Amino acid sequence: MVSVAVVGLGLAVVGFAGRQVLRAAPHVAKKMSDVLNTMSLESSLSKYHKGGFEPTMSKREASLVLDVSPNAPKNKIREAHRRIMLINHPDKGGSPYIATKINEAKDLLDKK
User: Fold this and answer.
1) Nearest to 49 by CA among 33, 62, 36
2) Which residues make Cβ contacts (< 8 Å) with residue 51, sequence separation at least 6?
3) Is the overall model pTM greater than 0.90, yes or no?
4) How far is CA 29 from CA 20, 37, 43, 75, in A?
5) Total tally of structural domains belonging to the chain
6) Does any domain span residue 52?
7) One pLDDT digit (tens) per residue for the chain, 112 residues
8) Does residue 54 sit within a domain?
9) What CATH code is carried by the domain that includes residue 76?
10) Can you give the pLDDT at residue 66?
11) In-domain check, residue 106
12) What is the DSSP letter of 92?
């Protein structure tokens, strides 16, 4: 008889706790949303450029790709190109598209 009462009391506690969790769920969801918005704000302050590539590469975009000044000397451009290509080369698992963009950036900045 005592075990039936204990089981009943346990079920009541579980039910009450579940009800409280469901009542708190909207507040928890709002808090999570606020945290995620804060995280996205922090990621937008990153030193990396956010967004894709332009249809035709500009001098600004080329300097962002190689992480050099638009007026950098040729030797700095070549060093930056080499450093980035060693990391992103398709033979080492890099993307052929990214490698093409890196080469395009070097060619554009090297022309001047």
Assistant:
1) 62
2) none
3) no
4) 14, 12, 21, 53
5) 2
6) no
7) 778 888 888 888 887 777 777 777 676 666 666 766 665 545 555 566 667 777 888 898 999 899 999 889 999 999 999 999 999 999 989 899 999 999 999 999 988 6
8) no
9) 1.10.287.110
10) 92
11) yes
12) G
Residue span of the structural domain in which 106 resides? 59-111
Tokens at 67, concatenated: 């992480």
User: Is there a single domain that holds both residue 42 and residue 64?
Assistant: no
Domain presence at residue 51: no
Let me know if 72 is exposed, middle or buried by CB neighbors in 10 A (0-12, 13-18, 19+).
Answer: middle
40 lies in the same domain as 70: no
What's the pLDDT at 50? Answer: 66
90: its two tokens: 């398709």
